[in-house]
Amino acid sequence: MSELLNFNFPPEPAVDRVTLFADVILPLPLPKLYTYRIPFEMNDEVLVGVRVIVQFGAKKVLSCIVADIHENAPADYQAKYVLDVLDDKPIVTAPQLKLFKWIADYYMCTLGEVINAALPSALKLSSESRLQLHPSYEPEEDDIPLATQEVKIIYALQQNQALTFTEVGNLLQLKNYHKYIKSLIQKEAIIIFEQVSDKYSPKVVKKVRLSEHFVQEEAMLEELFAQLTPKPKQLDILLNYLQKVPVHQDKNLNIRGLEKNVLTGNPHLSQSAITSLIRKGVLEQFDQIVSRFPTDFGAMQMPMALSEHQAEAREEILGLFKQKDTVLLHGVTGSGKTEVYIDLIKHALEGGGQVLYLLPEIALTAQIVTRLMKVFGDQLGVYHSKFSDNERAEVWQGILSGKFQVVVGVRSSIFLPFHNLSLVIIDEEHEPSYKQYDPAPRYNARETALMMAHLQGAKTLLGSATPSVETYHNCKTGRWGLVSMTKRFGAAQMPDIELVNTRDEQKRKKMHSHFSAKLINEIEARLHRQEQVILFQNRRGYAPFIACDECSWIPKCKHCAVSLSYHKYNQELRCHYCGYHERMPSDCPACGATTLKSMGFGTEKVEDELKLMLPNAEVQRMDLDTTKKKNSYQQIIADFESGRTNILVGTQMVTKGLDFENVSLVGILNADTIINFPDFRAHERAYQLFVQVSGRAGRKGKHGTVIIQTRDPLQSIFRKVRNNDYLALYEHEIEERMRFNFPPFVRMIKITVKHEDERTAENSAIVLAKELTDQLSKEQVLGPEVPYIFKIRNLFLQEIHIKLPRQSGQLSSSKRMIADTIHQLKLLPDFKGLRVVVDVDPA
């Protein structure tokens, strides 16, 4: 025994306590990453790409993304500890982090601004984030064990509906309260949202089912039939239910029941009889939470067989993909590009890859998603800003888990966590909607998607009937591949395009308000044939401004150097730049006269006048004012597709890629305002708009007509539009841009200087331009100049444009120089409060 007691056991192996540090991306506009110390017990939990909770500053608590892990303590400050880890696995992938760093570098912004734009709010936590009970969580019924602190949070949420992180900290009187929030999220007891408008509410449908005892005992069901025989209306409802839910074949079908609106929406069934059956206990009514994403895709369909022309295009694209990473599909409107896209998506999925299908407008996703769902079913995810943050987080997690292999979305879709991308499709690639203006990052989704595809080794297909000059130039110089589709699908012909000289029409008194006699006659003829019409006016509201007929007073915005637009529906004057609005005055504030007149016209006035001129026509409007609600796009498009709407009036939303088989007439009401715009891209954009909106007419074999109203029909651009001559437009534009040194021969950077004092804005812009000119040259630095709208949101503006040679190899160094010069300018005491916005590749 003594020998045993004196035995020298070998020492325990020393635990290697490595001190690790994490560089994190905070969702703030900070120029550098911040470093935090990782607690030893979290060494295996903190991974690159996961979210961690940290304290930033004295009180602020934030979630952030881990960008790097190392053993180097920061030299300039003592690193605080990471407070908690939110994820078991990275929610930001390695390819994403590379892309985010490229965006920050290329578009001259911070990684924090990129992360803030990229992550849905439901994945961002801060001191002011809010908690709410998960809609499906029932505290009384749930048997998941809760800690005492978690019970306190649940009870408080039952009383208050929502709490901020700060309020939770005060409630628990604990410094490290985040672990309880994290635990409740993992137990699906609570969810997070950022603002009141983001608060998640589940989609609930009302359903009915047959009371259980009638299902389990056949005798009782037979007895029920006998009881209802004298009441034929109630018997009809029972028979209708059993027809749709055949419980005699499978009793379990009754558990799922039937959506109540299937019965209430049937005009042949009595509503009161349904209520009576529910009251008697024959039918049970219950609520069911359902996914907002479609799960019933109807009859799944195979992709439509490609025509010979489409199949040739597909084979050309696949052939070019063997040599080049990027290909442009230049197909005329109505040529069937979408069917080619679907075939290529199917090909990519068969190879095990992921696909991103980018569209420029939410309105387009509403129509295209229905077609894609029938082919790809629940492999398809949809992502755009009309979804709530929780819905967007659901798509984000669905991509990480592999649930969604195909994503259709607008520009923000480029931030999603793809990790096995094989194909990116950028439809209507020419659209300026792909450019983000405010806030930073001011990225172009087309260029960013190209970089994303490059980083993941994916192929990119650009599609357009009217490609951007830059894109076509890349094809003509051999950098990208080019495939052309010059014929419309099936028997459809290109529409006839007619010009109406509104100057002559006014002289001959043939104008009916803003409509020429020709256009009105054509609209009436289409309505008589039960065909549909699209009218395009590139300005929303009722009128651009109002004016006093006596003293010429025009109401101006209090915060911007613009007149207020008149919106008749709300009887208000509104600024389209800052959102300021006021009631429409009944008389002139300047002279007291009551002769206030609306000047010009927008989509609201077009809609109003059409309803007066054509009282039997159903007119609907699609613009920013009518599509603010979540599902308004889908409803407007569904009404038009079904024929409930005869005439659709809209802004640029109606020009982009929509496919309506019964539209035979398109009217462009005021073409001149689009052409005569102070921008080097004005003619290119005008051509694209005219051709795109014209392409909505004459599909599915119905011959179409386009009427363009203009005061100057001799403009050369109309000849190109009538002949569908893109090549003539391209050759003219590329020659002009080479001559005057514009893209694609240079890269442009626009710098906007803003200050609440006009003189300070001007002086600072002069100083900045001089410093930049000293570093570059007079030819490369243009300005400063006062923009057309020189004041927005109480800030006076000055603009400087910089042209950098595309092939100089000095783009990165020039950007660093520009950033340093701006930083030094903002440090000068004379320019305190100065704001400087840098926009790389302005649209």
Automatic annotation (TrEMBL):
GO cellular component: primosome complex
Listed InterPro entries: DEAD/DEAH_box_helicase_dom, Helicase_ATP-bd, Helicase_C-like, P-loop_NTPase, PriA, PriA_3primeBD, PriA_3primeBD_sf, PriA_C
Chain sites annotated for binding Zn(2+) 1: 548, 551, 588, 591
Cofactor(s) named in the record: Zn(2+)
Swiss-Prot/TrEMBL catalytic activity: ATP + H2O = ADP + phosphate + H(+); Couples ATP hydrolysis with the unwinding of duplex DNA by translocating in the 3'-5' direction
SMART domains with a match to the protein in the record: DEXDc, HELICc
E.C. designation(s): 5.6.2.4
Residues reported to bind Zn(2+) 2: 557, 560, 575, 578
Cofactor binding remark: Binds 2 zinc ions per subunit.
Helicase C-terminal domain ranges (all copies): 583-753
Keyword annotations: ATP-binding, DNA replication, DNA-binding, Helicase, Hydrolase, Isomerase, Metal-binding, Nucleotide-binding, Primosome, Zinc
Domain spans labelled Helicase ATP-binding: 318-485
Database matches in Gene3D superfamilies: P-loop containing nucleotide triphosphate hydrolases, PriA, 3(prime) DNA-binding domain
Keyword 4Fe-4S: no
GO biological process, one term: DNA replication, synthesis of primer
UniProt superkingdom: Bacteria
Gene Ontology MF: a single term: DNA binding
Pfam families: DEAD (PF00270), Helicase_C (PF00271), PriA_3primeBD (PF17764), PriA_C (PF18074), Zn_ribbon_PriA (PF18319)
General function of this protein: Initiates the restart of stalled replication forks, which reloads the replicative helicase on sites other than the origin of replication. Recognizes and binds to abandoned replication forks and remodels them to uncover a helicase loading site. Promotes assembly of the primosome at these replication forks.
Subunit (UniProt): Component of the replication restart primosome.
PANTHER family per record: PRIMOSOMAL PROTEIN N (PTHR30580)
Stated family: Belongs to the helicase family. PriA subfamily.
HAMAP family assigned: PriA
Protein name: Replication restart protein PriA
Species whose genome carries this gene: Pontibacter qinzhouensis
Gene name of the encoded protein: priA
